[in-house]
Amino acid sequence: MTSWLRQYCFHVTDIERSIKFYEAIGLTCTSRTQITDEIKEAVVENPERGAWLQLAENSTIKGPIDMGTAFWKLYVYTDDCRGTYEKALAAGATSHTAPHRMERWPVEMAYVLCPDGYLIEFLERDQTPSENNAGGSPRDQSVN
Description:
The protein has a single domain (7-125), classed as 2,3-Dihydroxybiphenyl 1,2-Dioxygenase, domain 1 (Roll), CATH 3.10.180.10. Helix content is 14%, strand content 39%. It has helices at residues 15-24, 81-90, and strands at 7-11, 28-34, 39-46, 49-58, 74-77, 94-101, 107-113, 119-125. It has a four-stranded mixed sheet, covered by helices on one side. Strands 5-8-7-6 form a four-stranded mixed sheet, with helices on one face.
């Protein structure tokens, strides 16, 4: 048996606002689906790399999203951490941690809260992942 992760789904309160946010940080909306009268879905991704994110708006759910404690953060790999961070802020994100270089790993990273409150980490690597640096074994999310 072979298993792997490929798609993640976030509940969002305004799908159009969310699509604009993810497009602003460099992803592309590659599909939209009206599931029911109440539920709309869209997929944002970089079609040439990694997994994709499904955004789902359910109009019967009102108010802010209750994050609970299970979800921590979404990693978004980039070749321009500072630029992506600035574009995220301009698209409605709130700064959590400004871009900075990590001493332990060969990366620059920043955190924002997207318009729906999800914590997103932008990660720019100095080199291709290996057994000796951030990321473990090489995978298709490498930005090099």
